[in-house]
Amino acid sequence: FFIICITILFIVLFFMGRLIKSPFGLALNASRQSRQRVEAVGFDFHKLQLTAFILSGAVTGLSGALFADLNRFVSPSMFSWQLSGEFIVFIIIGGVGRLFGPVIGALIFVWLEHSIGGISDYWHIFLGLILLAIVLFGKGGIIGLVCREDRQNE
After folding, report:
1. Are the CB atoms for 68 and 105 separated by under 8 Å?
2. What φ, ψ does residue 132 adopt, rounded to 5°?
3. Domain residue spans in the chain?
4. pTM score, two decimals?
């Protein structure tokens, strides 16, 4: 099952990477900054937003179906605010606006949970300190820090 999930993850990341560099992805990125410019270039702003909403809903629905298959059970109590908060922490740790940011953030989060969680029940404090350090000093998350370090060495 996990091999299927990882395969689906890489397929989705591949298509999202291609989508970001396509004219649609560039227009979608531009629509965040100026609706008028996107319409002046010839894109319909509402169709662009609707298509983005449909694509994000499809990816979210696929991940929800995989989550339900993993647990073999679904109930509203499984989707608490803590789960949504963990997803936001994944994104912040890995890097906001980065394609692999949430993946890296999830890997670090799970590693912290298993390595420090076995030692102490207060592993969330360490996670909070890392999160605070990234918000204050590492604007682009872990990926942003690594990329910035590579640029400084050149």
Report:
1. no
2. -65, -45
3. 1-75, 80-154
4. 0.73
Hey, how many other C-beta atoms are within 10 angstroms of the C-beta on 43?
Answer: 19
Q: What is d(CA 7, CA 5) in angstroms, rounded to the nearest whole number?
A: 5
Closest listed residue to residue 89, CA positions, set 66, 112, 70: 112
> What is the DSSP annotation of the chain?
-HHHHHHHHHHHHHHHHHHHHSHHHHHHHHHHH-HHHHHHHT--HHHHHHHHHHHHHHHHHHHHHHHHHHHT---GGGS-HHHHHHHHHHHHHH-TT-SSHHHHHHHHHHHHHHHTTTT-TTHHHHHHHHHHHHHHH-TTHHHHHHHHHHHHH-
pLDDT digits (tens, 9 = 90+) for 21-36: 998 888 888 888 888 8
pLDDT of residue 135 exceeding 80, the answer is yes
- Residue 18 pLDDT grade (very low, low, confident, very high; cuts 50, 70, 90): very high
151 — pLDDT class (breaks 50, 70, 90) = low
Asked if 50 and 44 touch (Cβ cutoff 8 Å), the reply is no
